[in-house]
Amino acid sequence: PQCVVRRTATFESLPSRRDHEEFIRHCTEILLKEAVFDGTNRRNKVLNFRNPDELRAQFQFELEPNPSTHEELVSLLKDTIYYSVKTGHPYFANQLFSSLDPYGLVGQWLTDALNPSVYTYEVSPVFTLMEETVLREMRRIVGFKDGKGDGIFCPGGSMANGYAISCARYKFMPDVKTKGLHSLPRLVLFTSEDAHYSIKKMSSFLGIGSDNVYLINADSRGRMDVNHLEQEVGRALSEGGVPFMVSATAGTTVIGAFDPLEQIAGVCEKYGLWFHVDAAWGGGALVSKRHRRLLAGIERADSVTWNPHKLLTAPQQCSTLLLRHEGILSASHSANAAYLFQKDKFYDTTYDTGDKHVQCGRRADVLKFWFMWKAKGTSGLERHIDKVFENSKFFVDTIKRRPGFELVIEEPECTNICFWYIPPSLRDAKSHPDYREKLHKIAPKIKERMMKEGNMMVTYQAQKDLPNFFRIVFQNSGLEKTDMLYFIDVFERLGKD
Ligand code: ABU
User: Fold this and answer.
1) Is the bond preceding 475 in cis, omega lying within 30 degrees of 0?
2) Can you tell me where the transmembrane regions are (predicted)?
């Protein structure tokens, strides 16, 4: 339909309800066509990159005193879609999230249409019970007895890890809630050198201090070295520090390694430490009978971070913290705001769950995931996981046979695959003294060509003393083997000397 050119809100003529309806219908059609269907079509680009100055010049970012017309607003929407990265596109493999799940999208849109805030049952009755259901089922899948325990939806995995540290700290010394950091000795937390940076960040945020995060060596496959963990616990004790928590990782951010959870659980039990598992990335593997062995021992955890927006492809954001213990979230964080959490309401106020969060207003991130889960069933989630692991194995097996590709880890455990692409001119130069320096410059160069061309998106990084390497991430089960070959072919084309 034609969009009517009409000023939005002016004193002379406020738009009518009919104008608004027409505007919403028109915009919805554009969103569906340009962002959803065109944005996920293999024939179209993943991105149309512009440098910041170019983008500023081509896009009307500036805000003005006067209202824009509906026609101008439609044009802004189209520009927003055009210049944005299409993260649902099959060839967006840059981050630990991707895909555009149809049921997730509808759930996300419905969430925004209803615009709830999940702090009290009276405001969010459906979402409160949905959260209860989904979190219980996730705990059951983790292996907590009968799905018992507690949990919350969080704004991202970093925050979920922060909540875990806060709960561990409270369990160790409940006085911290009222007396603050003065009540604490020097607490020490242990995590692998390959763990997500949020562990350090949240330790600073919570007053533990990043110096008191002891980094444990990772082995050649990126997994926490448990002997070193035990040595470091001993070192902290001998220094007069007080070990209180180990944060293990199930699916490290770059390499995709799974720490040996059974052994780490043993160390935690021996020293009385809170055992947290950051399974933000790898948690999705728990729904697969074939792959859940990667997380053996997770059922012994005190807390687990698990982000359905990663391997399970729920729309951003959908992050959870799951706990084996009941009541500790509320004990650590409640402030009993009397204006919101009145105890003399006519219904069971234990359903006013908001006070166990540190946020007040909170999006209903549960709906999109619950709706996807309903649509696919747990068996559909399992098929999705099995498919992305199959695709990853096919990609690994293929690049092992292709000249120029070299894996960082020969047998990746998860669906993030790290590799170097070595252009023909460097292939016989490995013994040259400047080989690593030259290799270090290859990935940024290929990435620049990739971004400017816009046909796929894959990230790179250096890690420890390794030269820059690519990390391609597979979590879109709509991809086929032909897509794996597409990625490989594009690397070969962009990596030409
Ligand atoms: N937890 C955020 C991970 C970001 C990324 O590497 O894709």
Assistant:
1) no
2) none
